[in-house]
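Module 6 notes. Inverse folding takes a fixed backbone as the condition and produces residue identities as the prediction. Think of it as a translation problem where the source language is geometry and the target language is the twenty amino acids. Below is one complete input and output pair. Work through it position by position during the lab.
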């Protein structure tokens, strides 16, 4: 297992957006539109200069479909067609105005701000072998806005890094590091899922929906990224807190326990209570300790 402290720090920053995130406690599904995923101009130019422009193009195209798929499979939103939103977003950017899309409750925009596709080669002449190692790194910023006002609910910067290595004979040394293999697909799938799930958490934080003996049920299904073996902390809402400098109202979050995921289904997940000082239905749960894919 591996402790994700950077993720915890990011989640802590989300407290400022709690009035939005905790407001969704009923009343049916909210609607969301996902605008076209783009990269920064600097990333596109650098990839072109390095001769791997196909890599970033594949990432952007794959993210478009995979983020959409991940959001739909959370079963928490009605997802709108994005064609009108893309036009409005471009217009707002050109005029410097506030982006507003009143057809949807929320708008999700994603921009890839870093991408690296590296390959290293070491040749062992005596063995007639070449060891090739390739790594793909990608980073993107997700922003969730209220559709009718353009007010930002929250932002998250997600990073992923995947790598592989293989031995090749002298007859297969030459190879172009382009977007035709599984490594980029793997990085894209991981980035898409993390972006989608983090965005959903701004609006619908994971919650305890049932408690029986030493087992709780969490409203996250097998498409949400939750895994058997993960450890989640449990929080309940405390008092309203007012920032004396800005006047912003935040909700205090009180730690009441810890749970470990034991079962994941297409509808929900269940976890064994590890520590309990007041866990109850409606409590918010947040990931604090993840598991490697190899441990699933």
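Target side of the pair, the amino acids:
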């Amino acid at each position: 297992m591996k402790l994700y402290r950077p993720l915890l720090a990011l989640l802590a920053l989300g407290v400022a957006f709690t009035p939005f995130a905790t407001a969704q406690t009923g009343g049916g599904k909210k609607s969301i539109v996902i605008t076209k995923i783009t990269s920064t101009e600097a990333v596109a130019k650098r990839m072109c200069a390095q001769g791997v422009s196909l890599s970033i193009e594949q990432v952007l195209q794959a993210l478009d479909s995979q983020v959409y798929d991940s959001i739909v499979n959370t079963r928490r939103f009605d997802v709108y067609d994005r064609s009108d939103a893309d036009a409005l977003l471009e217009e707002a950017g050109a005029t410097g105005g506030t982006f507003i899309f009143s057809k949807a409750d929320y708008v999700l925009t994603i921009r890839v701000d870093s991408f690296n596709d590296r390959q290293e080669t070491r040749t062992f002449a005596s063995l007639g072998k070449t060891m090739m190692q390739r790594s793909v790194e990608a980073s993107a910023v997700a922003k969730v806005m209220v559709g009718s006002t353009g007010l930002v609910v929250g932002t998250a910067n997600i990073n992923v890094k995947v790598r592989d290595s293989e031995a090749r004979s002298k007859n297969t040394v030459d190879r172009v590091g382009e977007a035709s293999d599984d490594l980029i697909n793997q990085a894209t799938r991981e980035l898409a899922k993390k972006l989608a799930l983090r965005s959903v958490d701004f609006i619908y934080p994971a919650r305890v929906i049932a408690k029986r003996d030493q087992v709780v049920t969490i409203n996250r299904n097998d498409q949400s990224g939750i895994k058997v073996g993960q450890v989640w902390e449990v929080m309940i809402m405390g008092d309203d807190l007012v920032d004396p400098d800005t006047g912003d109202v935040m909700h205090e979050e009180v730690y009441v326990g810890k749970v470990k995921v034991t079962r994941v289904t297409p509808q929900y997940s269940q976890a064994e209570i590890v520590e309990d000082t007041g866990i109850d239905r409606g409590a918010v749960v947040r990931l604090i300790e993840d598991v490697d894919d190899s441990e699933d």
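Reference fact for the lab report: Residues 1-25, 172-180 have pLDDT under 50 and may be disordered.
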